[in-house]
Design brief:
Strand content: under 5%
EC number: 1.11.1.28
Shape: globular
Number of domains: 1
Helix content: over 70%
Structural class: mainly alpha
CATH class: Mainly Alpha
Distance between the termini: 27 Å
Number of strands: 0
Oligomer: single chain
Keywords: Antioxidant, Disulfide bond, Oxidoreductase, Peroxidase, Redox-active center
Number of helices: 8
Catalytic activity: N(6)-[(R)-dihydrolipoyl]-L-lysyl-[lipoyl-carrier protein] + a hydroperoxide = N(6)-[(R)-lipoyl]-L-lysyl-[lipoyl-carrier protein] + an alcohol + H2O
CATH topology: AhpD-like
Order of helices and strands: HHHHHHHH
Radius of gyration: 16 Å
CATH architecture: Up-down Bundle
GO molecular function: disulfide oxidoreductase activity; hydroperoxide reductase activity; peroxiredoxin activity
Domain Carboxymuconolactone decarboxylase-like: 101-173
Length: 178
């Protein structure tokens, strides 16, 4: 199970996605842990069984057990936070930003891995889930810690490509049943 298996599964019309998947997983300036944690967290955010199976197997070969668990935690906590913060933002009443969320999210403060890596993974998942408020927050933390914009953009590119792989493969699977 691997990136190569996903590339093989993509239809001819998704050649750009196939090439981008190869590129984002082999030419990264992110650390190995940042790269594969981002890939894993994004795979989980897509909810695609096939993408999760293939990419989690490959990520396991690059991540320590602690980092693997932390990447899963990033996907989980952002699944909650992205809904909450996107909703309070979309309502348009700034009063909601002054009310405590009262949602437990201690894993963000103590993820079990380098906090910067966890922030990268949270940013990427927030991109897939479409939460502007979370994207802004995680980007600011990363920038304040000295991460260059090019590396932040790289995490966003990984999110975009992993999501496109999932959408394409899930779409093909659905069309096959029609």
């Amino acid at each position: 199970m691997s990136v190569d298996a996903l590339k093989e599964a993509l239809p001819a019309y998704a050649k750009d996605i196939k090439l981008n998947l190869g590129s984002v997983t082999t030419t990264s300036s992110l650390t190995d842990q940042q790269l594969w944690g981002t890939v894993l967290a994004c795979a989980l955010a897509t909810r695609s069984r096939q993408v999760i199976a293939e990419l989690s197997a490959e990520a396991a070969g690059h991540l320590s057990p602690e980092a693997f668990t932390a990447a899963k935690a990033a996907a989980a906590i952002m699944a909650m936070n992205n809904v909450y913060y996107r909703s309070t933002h979309l309502i348009g009443d700034e009063t909601y930003t002054t009310i405590p969320a009262r949602l437990r999210m201690t894993v963000i403060g103590n993820p079990g891995v380098d906090k910067l890596d966890f922030e990268v993974w949270s940013l990427a998942v927030s991109a897939i889930n479409g939460c502007g408020r979370c994207l802004e927050s995680h980007e600011q933390v990363l920038r304040k810690s000295g991460m260059p914009r090019e590396q932040i953009q790289e995490a966003l590119r990984i999110a975009a490509v992993v999501n496109a792989v999932a959408v394409t493969l899930e779409g093909e699977a659905a069309l096959a049943t029609v």
